[in-house]
Design brief:
Elements: H1 2-23, E1 29-34, H2 40-51, E2 67-71, E3 82-86, H3 89-106, H4 111-124, H5 133-146, H6 155-163, E4 170-174, H7 175-180, H8 182-191, H9 200-209, H10 212-216, H11 243-259, H12 295-299
Parallel strand pairs: 1-2, 1-3, 3-4
């Protein structure tokens, strides 16, 4: 049943995207697009709550009603009312690592997780310790950059596809801005796609309803690795990146990190301390599809980060 449901969900997702591309205006659909682990589930629930429309998840049937569709799709110019949520790629990798390890513990027998376990045993070694993120993160980042599984393309390429150039039918927002000013950031993006004035009281009610404290039952920043809502903060990568992990990430996505405004230059790599036994990571130059220097042209249109 696990494999059957996995295939049904995959078929439903592909069919819904086809419907959205060709007939999505008839419903209409609202889209929250992200590279995995950028905060898209949180944003999707708030958008759906404010608009008072459904946000279907894990459906095995294609969608054909007005709703919010959370996805990791590649760019398509025919999609309308798209929120593109991005996040510091280093935090994405850390969050993704813990998410994957949690799923392996909680549902080890699912077809997808069996494939994941085989993948990680080849990369980390048989009997690897999933809690040892400092040791395994460099190889994990390398895998997600070279052969991503939850998205068809890697993080810097996903960013480049959606953000170069800026699209009129896309509202751009960062996870960090959403944390810093949830109501203001959410209201600005919803206002882009509606002629009705934003209802401040309704907006604040939505933000309160989906606050981390309320959903997780603990304060933001208090970690629970067994929960989907693990920590809910920005900058957690500093607690887990070694020098080797920094070098691997910089190799594939260092320029994208700069172009998005998260770093001014590559000096951050040298500030990461090596874990015992780490050696300098050596990799071939990435293929052109992984290059993202074109984000620089898009950066001029972004508000300056504080």
């Amino acid at each position: 049943m696990g494999l059957l449901r996995e295939n049904q969900q995959r078929f439903a997702n592909k069919t819904t995207k086809f419907i959205g591309v060709w007939w999505g205006e008839n419903f209409p659909f609202w889209y929250v697009c992200e590279y995995p682990k950028a905060g898209g589930t949180w944003l999707s629930r708030m958008v759906a709550d404010y608009l008072d429309i459904p946000m279907p998840q894990y459906t095995i049937m294609p969608l054909g009603c007005q709703c919010v569709i959370h996805n990791h799709w590649m760019f398509n110019a025919r999609l309308r009312r798209v929120f593109y949520l991005y996040r510091d790629g280093r935090d994405v990798m850390v969050s993704f690592y813990f998410y994957r390890m949690r799923n392996l513990r909680q549902n080890p027998d699912s077809p997808f997780n069996r494939r994941l376990m085989a993948r990680y045993e080849r990369a980390f070694g048989d009997g690897f310790d999933p809690d040892n993120i400092r040791e395994h993160l460099p190889a994990f980042i390398d895998l997600e950059m070279r052969r991503p599984m939850n998205a068809r393309i890697n993080w810097p390429t996903h960013i480049a596809q959606w953000c170069i150039p800026r699209r009129d039918n896309v509202a751009y927002l960062s996870y960090e801005d959403l944390l810093r000013d949830t109501a203001g950031t959410l209201g600005r993006c919803i206002a882009k796609f509606t002629t009705e004035p934003i209802d401040g009281h309704r907006l604040q009610s939505t933000v309160d309803r989906y606050s981390f404290d309320r959903m997780a039952g603990r304060r933001r920043g208090v970690e629970d690795r067994s929960s989907f809502l693990r920590k809910g903060v920005a900058g957690d990568w500093r607690n887990h990146f070694t020098r080797q992990a920094a070098e691997v990430f910089d190799h594939y996505a260092g320029q994208t990190l700069i172009d998005l405004g998260y770093e001014r230059d590559r000096a951050w790599v040298k500030q990461c301390l090596d874990a015992p036994g780490c050696i300098r990571a050596m990799h071939p130059r990435p293929s052109p599809m992984n290059e993202s220097s074109g984000v620089r042209r898009w950066l001029t249109a972004l508000p300056l980060r504080s």
